[in-house]
Write a structure and sequence with these properties.
single chain; about 100 residues; mainly alpha; elongated
Length: about 100
Amino acid sequence: FAANSVSFAGPVRKREKHQQKRIEQGVQSGQLTSREAKHLEKGEARIENERERMLKDGKLTPKEAKKLTHDQNVLSKKIYHEKHDNQVREGVTPE
């Protein structure tokens, strides 16, 4: 069971990196304002810190992985919403 519990950490980290790229892409394309990006980055950092706390004992239990997945789902929806609202970063002309 212990080996299985650590295996949850890989997909969680991979998703963190993917969501980080989505935020960066949103800033570059002008879909995210700097304020929106900063808010999303804070959420991402909170999830990363939570993961690190959970891994202090060297394992990530299925319950902990479920909590992180839920938090990532919430953040993912926020990223989508912020990228698709009508606010445009200053200096970027919408196409």
